[in-house]
């Protein structure tokens, strides 16, 4: 809380990614029940932060309200290895908060209570960005996103240079129809959110990415941009 000193703990993005991958593998092994069943990474979706908490001996509890003065969405106490999450109607945001708070404890962030406050603006401290990075890698692991995205869309999409077919396929499952020019005019984030929610592309219907990973369109959009599938 109110940490301004240099961020301790793991901050290297590659290390954060490895940590998330290792945890996912552990969840997979437990689901496979000592080799009695074969489960693919794909079948793990959506990945559940609570599973990871149990594996690491972290207590994760839901509370009606964490702070009466401001909207605190989550709190991770490094001293007691305890995470408290505010119950909300926004399930997908809550899942991200759960993974974010796990990140604080698993990345060895400075002792104290890490609070996640709604609508925080401005530059965020390194520990907050590290926890977000962990949540992203944990809920939307690159190998699975790559596999699913490739299966659905086959190639990277540039919203300013779509073919007629691509524009048409993207709209097939949408109530609103966009032309190539419409796609070119919208912001990248707007475009990425559309890609995250469409339920077909050039053929058979599929489960939209936001449902498969059980994340918000905003989170999915960011991830697809970060992995350079969308530009
Ligand atoms: Zn945080």
Describe this structure in words.
The protein has 231 residues and is of the alpha+beta class. It folds into two domains: 120 residues, no CATH class; 84 residues, no CATH class. Helices cover 46% and strands 9% of the residues. It contains ten helices and four strands, in the order H-H-E-E-E-H-E-H-H-H-H-H-H-H. Strands 1-3-2-4 form a four-stranded mixed β-sheet. Helix 1 packs parallel to helix 4 and helix 2 packs parallel to helix 3. The N terminus is likely disordered. Zinc ion binds next to helix 3, strand 4 and helix 4.
What's this entry about, in short?
The chain has 231 residues and is of the alpha+beta class. It has helices at 13-31, 49-55, 91-106, 126-139, 142-153, 164-171, 180-185, 188-197, 209-213, 217-226; strands spanning 59-63, 72-77, 82-86, 113-117.
- The helix/strand series, from N terminus to C terminus, equals HHEEEHEHHHHHHH
Distance between the termini: 37 Å
What is the SS-derived class?
Answer: alpha+beta
Count of separate DSSP helical elements: 10
| Most strands sheet | 4 strands, mixed
Low-pLDDT stretches are: 1-5
Inertia-based shape: globular
Kindly state the number of beta strands: 4
How large, in whole angstroms, is the Cα Rg? 19 Å
- Strand order, largest beta sheet: 1-3-2-4
Tell me the fraction of residues in β-strands, as a range: 5-15%
User: Which range best describes the helical content: under 10%, 10-25%, 25-40%, 40-55%, 55-70% or over 70%?
Assistant: 40-55%
What hetero molecules are bound to the protein chains? zinc ion
Question: Number of domains in the coordinates?
Answer: 2
Average of the residue pLDDT scores: 91
